[in-house]
Structure formats: structure tokens, C-alpha cells
């Protein structure tokens, strides 16, 4: 194959450029510009820190100290900076923070414990203690905190006990915390207890369960959510409509059409959620009610209806 003159010239230019950048080849050729050391910026930022890595800035002594009564922000800082510190003596004291009055402190204590090799199943068997508190504790606040902790531990073994608590504990506070734990564990429960919680007698539990249903990867009982479209609570009806829209559940279209009608649903917030959900689902049978909603007495319903109608026409 014959090589063109243009190709030879291009090759020569590339070769010459390489030689210039490397400072080799031609005598007296300029050297390549010095490339700044990209690590120098990091070194400047951390020049006042010790050589210990950021994750190990907190010492065991500091961790023990903050568990004895420090400001919440100090506790969070020390535990976060002690992410990889292996301190067996710290475990029992950090475990006490699982029942702290500050929700963020409880969360970061559970986070620190689960990131230890022996944090949850190590000295003192924190997991066993927390499980015992949930199942047999006499104080509802402690049981609720224990349910939260099991959720934060992210251990499969914790699913069954929090699922049971979500539907059987006498305290609505504990049931709400257990539902939140199922949310954190990304699980509906061995017997779909999350669906049962959606019909709980307590409004807060129902709302928490609806939120969890849309968060977890697999939720098998959409019919339980559809049933909440007729809930006594407007907040629950609205949340159910939002969830069904997010799930794009075609089984919910009839119920949502009913909620979009001012003659059947007096709360404009619920009508707004229903219209928005119908737009997400995109079922053509909802066109008439969405069109009618453009003349709703509430401006927000009108606005959402215009958006939903465009979604149906796409």
C-alpha cells in the first residue's frame, strides 16, 4: 500500500511534538512545562492534621468520653471521625446512646456500631440486648428506640422481630418505629406486615407504612394502599394517592377518579394528589375527570390538572 505524502507529514509532526514534550531528540529543545503536583493542594489543606487518616482521627479515649454526656454535635463528630476505630471497650458505652433522647444521636450510634467488626455481635452482644428490649421491654420509648436500632443495624435477622412489632405492639409509637425500621431494612416483612400496618388504627402508623411501601424495592400488596383512598383521614388519602401515582398503579384508577371529583372529595389537597397520580399513571379513562378538574375551585388543582392532561396526550 502506498503511503501519501500528507500522512508522512502528519506522522512527522506527531513525532516532533512528542520529542519536544519529553525534552529528548533535538539539542537545546525546550523541555515540557512542569505539571503541578496535584497532591500539593491536599497536603496544604491537611497540613495541620496528624498523619492518622481522617477516619481514625477520633481516639478510643475520645469516643468513651463523649458517651458520658456531651453535646449532640460533639458526639456526632467524634463517632463519625472514629468510623474505623476498633475499640471493644467502647461498644457498651456507645450502645447506651441507642436510647438517647436525640434521634440523630441514636442513628449515628447505631451507624458506628454496625461498622465495627464486633460492634453489633461483639462484646456485650448489643444485638441480643436490643432485641430483648424490643420484645420484652416495659417502656414504650425504649422499645421504639430498639426498633429503630434494629433498622439501622441493617441485619436480616432483625426483619422478623420488627415486622412483628409493627403489627402487634400495644404502643402506636413502637409500631411507627417498627414500620420505619422495615423501611430502613428495605423489606415488607415475612408475611407482608407492612401491608397490615397500612390499615393500622393509628393515623401516624398508616402514614409511615404508606411512605415505607413506596421506598422498599418490593411491595406485594398494592390493594392495601388502594383501600386507603377511602380512609377517614385526608392526610392518609392524600399520601395513598401520591404513593399509587408513584407506583403507576392501574388498579387505582377508579378510586383516584373518585377522589378527583369535588362532589366526592372536599379536600383540595387530596384532589390535587389524585389528579397528579392519574397523570402519572396515564390511563386514558381519566381524561374526562382531569379535564373537568381544570375548572376546579382550587387553583392548585387546576394547575396540576393542566400538567396531568398533557401527560395523557404524550
Summarize the structure.
This protein is mainly alpha-helical and 314 residues long. The protein has helices spanning 5-22, 39-45, 60-66, 72-81, 91-96, 103-114, 126-136, 140-153, 159-168, 172-185, 193-197, 203-215, 222-227, 234-247, 253-259, 268-281, 287-293, 299-313.
Structure description:
Mean pLDDT is 85; it is low at 1-9, 11-27 and 32-40. The longest helix is centred in the N-terminal third of the chain and has 18 residues, at 5-22. It is built from 18 helices and no strands. It folds into 3 domains: 53-124, no CATH class; 125-220, Leucine-rich Repeat Variant; 224-314, Leucine-rich Repeat Variant (Alpha Horseshoe). Helices cover 61% and strands 0% of the residues. It is mostly helical.
Please specify the SSE layout and strand pairing.
Elements: H1 5-22, H2 39-45, H3 60-66, H4 72-81, H5 91-96, H6 103-114, H7 126-136, H8 140-153, H9 159-168, H10 172-185, H11 193-197, H12 203-215, H13 222-227, H14 234-247, H15 253-259, H16 268-281, H17 287-293, H18 299-313
Helix pairs in contact: 4-6, 6-8, 7-8, 8-10, 9-10, 10-12, 12-14, 14-16, 15-16, 16-18, 17-18
Amino acid at each position: 500500500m502506498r503511503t501519501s505524502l500528507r500522512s508522512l507529514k502528519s506522522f512527522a509532526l506527531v513525532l516532533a511534538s512528542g520529542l519536544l514534550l519529553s525534552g529528548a531528540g533535538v539539542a537545546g529543545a525546550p523541555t515540557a512545562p512542569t505539571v503541578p503536583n496535584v497532591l500539593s493542594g491536599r497536603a496544604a489543606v491537611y497540613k495541620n492534621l496528624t498523619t492518622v487518616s481522617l477516619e481514625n482521627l477520633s481516639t478510643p479515649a475520645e469516643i468513651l468520653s463523649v458517651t458520658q454526656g456531651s453535646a449532640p454535635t460533639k458526639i456526632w463528630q467524634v463517632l463519625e471521625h472514629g468510623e474505623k476505630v476498633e475499640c471493644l471497650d467502647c461498644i457498651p458505652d456507645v450502645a447506651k446512646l441507642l436510647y438517647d433522647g436525640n434521634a440523630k444521636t441514636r442513628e449515628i450510634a447505631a451507624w458506628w456500631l454496625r461498622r465495627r467488626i464486633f460492634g453489633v455481635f461483639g462484646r456485650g452482644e448489643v444485638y441480643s440486648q436490643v432485641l430483648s428490649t424490643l420484645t420484652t421491654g416495659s417502656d414504650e420509648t425504649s422499645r421504639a428506640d430498639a426498633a429503630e436500632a434494629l433498622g439501622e443495624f441493617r441485619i436480616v435477622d432483625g426483619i422478623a422481630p420488627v415486622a412483628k412489632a409493627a403489627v402487634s405492639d400495644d404502643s402506636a409509637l413502637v409500631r411507627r418505629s417498627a414500620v420505619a425500621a422495615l423501611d430502613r431494612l428495605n423489606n415488607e416483612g415475612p408475611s407482608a406486615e407492612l401491608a397490615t400496618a397500612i390499615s393500622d388504627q393509628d393515623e401516624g402508623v398508616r402514614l409511615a407504612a404508606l411512605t415505607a411501601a413506596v421506598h422498599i424495592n418490593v411491595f406485594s400488596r398494592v390493594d392495601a394502599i388502594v383501600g386507603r383512598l377511602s380512609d377517614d383521614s385526608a392526610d392518609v388519602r392524600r399520601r395513598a394517592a401520591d404513593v399509587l401515582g408513584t407506583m403507576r398503579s392501574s388498579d387505582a384508577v377508579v378510586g383516584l377518579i373518585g377522589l378527583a371529583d369535588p362532589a366526592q372529595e372536599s379536600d383540595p389537597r387530596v384532589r390535587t394528589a389524585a389528579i397528579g397520580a392519574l397523570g402519572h399513571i396515564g390511563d386514558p379513562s381519566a381524561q374526562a375527570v382531569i379535564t373537568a378538574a381544570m375548572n376546579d375551585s382550587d387553583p392548585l388543582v387546576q394547575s396540576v390538572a393542566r400538567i396531568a392532561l398533557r401527560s395523557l396526550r404524550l
